[in-house]
Design brief:
Two copies of one chain form a homodimer.
Chain A lengths: L2 H4 L6 E7 L5 E5 L11 H5 L8 E7 L7 E9 L2 H13 L6 E5 L1 H13 L12 E9 L1 H16 L5 E5 L2 H18 L5 E5 L8 H15 L2 E7 L4 E8 L4 H20 L18 H4 L2 H14 L12
Helix pairs in contact in A: 3-5, 4-6, 7-8
């Protein structure tokens, strides 16, 4: 979730030891933060899902733990206003360490989950979307930035703002985020979930398209996730025992993947390809890219014995 | 210079368009901050020095410009004390956007350059090494962190501390850093320079070894550069018209490269391999790694027509 400020995992992998299928041991990168000697096999191996070599050692870059952090949950009348608020935050020059969003359907699922456990949600009825921010850094910075964050959101007329400035207060807000996945099962028995991503400026359009696909196909589409980097978790909620819905869910999934790629996005922001997404790879990668990836794989694994049929 | 806080260039390249030698156009990555669809050809192409494909388009990740910055130049009795000071800064949880060091020889060259132009250097005579820090972030953060930085350095008994808190003040400090390369020509007519890197914890040992190599070979060795990420610029200063020095300089270079690799470092932190360093590649990359890189190159460029004899 902190990729927005800190970059993704591969940005923190400095070096690797790996074993090629024939047993040959290679070292890529080093313990240096900067190392441009030869091709960057380190980053090529990260995220290769076991298709190139068996990684046996990793050297990771560490960052100092921030001195302080604070979180802020804000509600808005609808997702468009929430996204306008997020845009104002970036224009103010703030770089949160995390920025999550929840659409109205997700808020409804959380309301059900809280009601079931006898609790309450912090947002008033008029709330159609929420943003959850985390800021971290030196104590002085966090104190000043949380005020600038509030100011930046003011123009989007938040329905409420709730601040968490100590561990307990922050955890209370992030508990809501962590409740989403289990709560979704209260709206329908079956889930088909995705982790597509689109360029940040197209998140509003993407969510609207995904929901339209759900309406057309007759299944529920719920969106939440990492707004800051455009990585959207899309949950298709349906009832497998209803033949129409059972048929519609995989169709909706396919259309959501296709729409993501059409918007300049990707089939997978963080979870990878594995077995589930190999049938869809052709939506994003053309024959030139797939041919090249197959040749690169053959450079590592000429007999194709590593994780065959997956990832590529 | 800001890689310490912000990561290296390749961490900011989200997507690329490139043309393979046969004319086929490929797209790697996308406009998304997170995209793990297939192999990471984007990072493989970055830093490949034209050996794999011709890059025709790049999508870069941008960060908000920090609201404020401040710089601090501090002198120490010797390099060991300067490095102890830098260690204390990291232990205090501070992450400067840049952290440069200059050894005593470099300070001497700067003194000569300033004297020539009728100016003065800011450090007192007892100074054997300097550290130059830059902090950036929100105004409140920079103000608080610069004080914590001063405190962290106090135990290493700085010979002086000079602060730059506005553009003019900061530039005056960074002018000294920018003067280093031209100033080196005042100590000897010829220069053979390198950009080796070692793990940050071994910079003191590395500088001591490089200087010992210079003394043994009878050429001057001057060290400065990006202490924060262990990337050291090593200038071998000599007189080409003296046959003994002309022979010693390339020997010293070779020994400095070998020592860097022995310390877990790299032949090149940022400038790459090109033509100059291909003869030394075998010091860092073994036959397994070089064979693999050659096969990866062949996957892109089967006829070997792209930048032949360079980079790999």
């Amino acid at each position: 979730m902190r990729a927005l400020k800190y970059g993704v995992t591969r940005d923190h992998v400095l070096g690797l030891e790996a074993v090629l299928p024939g047993g040959e041991v290679i070292r890529a990168g080093s313990r240096c933060h900067k190392d441009v000697c030869g091709l960057d096999l380190t980053r090529l191996l990260v995220g290769s899902e076991g298709s190139l070599a068996v990684i046996t050692e990793a050297v990771l870059k560490l960052l100092p733990l921030p001195e302080a952090s604070a979180s802020l949950l804000a509600g808005f009348g609808d997702l468009e206003r929430a996204l306008a608020g997020a845009g104002a935050v970036f224009r103010a020059g703030l770089l949160p360490s995390a920025l999550e969003f929840m659409d109205s359907g997700v808020l409804g699922a959380l309301e059900k989950a809280r009601a079931k456990s006898g609790g309450e949600v912090p947002w008033p009825k008029a709330t159609g979307a929420c943003l959850l921010f985390k800021l971290d850094g030196s104590r002085a910075a966090v104190g000043a930035e949380i005020e600038r964050l509030r100011e930046a959101l003011a123009d989007s007329a938040p329905t409420f703002v709730k601040l968490g400035t100590d561990q307990e207060g922050e955890e209370a807000l992030w508990d809501l985020r962590r409740m989403i996945s289990p709560a979704m099962h209260l709206v329908a028995p079956n889930k088909s979930n995705d982790d597509v991503a689109v360029p940040r400026g197209r998140v509003a359009e993407a969510v609207a398209r995904y929901k339209a696909i759900g309406r057309e196909r007759g299944v529920g589409v719920y969106c939440f996730g990492h707004l800051g980097d455009g990585n959207i978790h899309v949950d298709i909620m349906y009832d497998e025992s209803d033949p129409a819905q059972a048929e519609a869910a995989p169709q909706a999934k396919k259309e959501i993947l296709r729409a993501s790629v059409e918007m300049g996005g990707t089939l997978t922001g963080e979870h990878g390809v594995g077995q589930v997404k190999t049938p869809y790879l052709g939506m994003q990668l053309g024959p030139a890219e797939r041919g090249l990836m197959a040749r690169v794989k053959a450079a590592f694994d000429p007999s194709g014995i590593l994780n065959p049929g997956k990832a590529l």
